[in-house]
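I'd like us to work through together how a protein chain folds, taking it slowly. We need material for that, and I hope you will provide a protein of your own picking. Go ahead whenever you are ready, and we will take it from there:
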Amino acid sequence: MPTHQGSIRLFRAAGIVVFLHWSWFLVAAYEINGRGRSYSSLTFNALEYLALFLIVLMHEFGHSLACRQVGGEANQIVLWPLGGVAYVNPPPRPGATLWSIAAGPLVNVALIPVFLGIGLLSRSLGWYESIPNLHQLLRSIAYINIGLLIFNILPIYPLDGGQILRSLLWFVLGRARSLMVATIIGFVGVAAFIGLALWAQSVWYGVLAAFMLMNCWSGLQHARFLSRLAKLPRRDGFACPRCNTAPPVGDFWKCGQCGQPFDTFQTQGVCPHCVARFAASRCLDCGGLHPLSEWIAPGGTIARL
């Protein structure tokens, strides 16, 4: 997954920072110059490519704003050659996750009547004959939006469709098993994309297949971790302020100084190996990071070392 490292900070809106990965420029130059001659000027090729990523950016903002609406964390979007990634962390509830993921494709759905109206306006004003490049650009952007929508709702993890499927299964199968099923279905989709890449002799389909394969494998490992986590005994007297889940008993936190695992709630945030002290602890269930004092459940206490 792309990160903001090696990326250019573009702007900040609604508390969300948007980055553009450096590799985007290389691919953009190749794509703009290599596209078919649908226009009489390369300027319109560039405008079409920029419009693609403007739609992607709106899609990612849909994810981020929806995640915040349900109480989740979302403060970063990274654009890169394969599209965009909104770093969202919704509360570990199926409904919250479903809305955070579905909001992205819903942005594309909302854009369809907008582009339809612009297309009708273009025809009524005679742009097809008077400004053919602009008419073709608007038409291409409308098709790009529909293409992105169809691609994203494919039920292949980690695409939006695969994550929506996972969220729906979560209501029935639970958190770990739903992710397990979604990633297994995702592997089938990856195999189909590999076949498509070989048939079409497309490097981009191959890159997409590799990206999905890595994410499916990561999702499968996370599903196994969640399954083991659900079976662990829990520590009384503590609860995550975000998801209200008690932390597991065991050495599941790694010291940032010496790298050794330890139980942060047993030692009150002090590594027993190097005596480094940590003011906050991360929830293994929802990923939230909170001061140890906020973890105290009603009736619980912190013993002073």
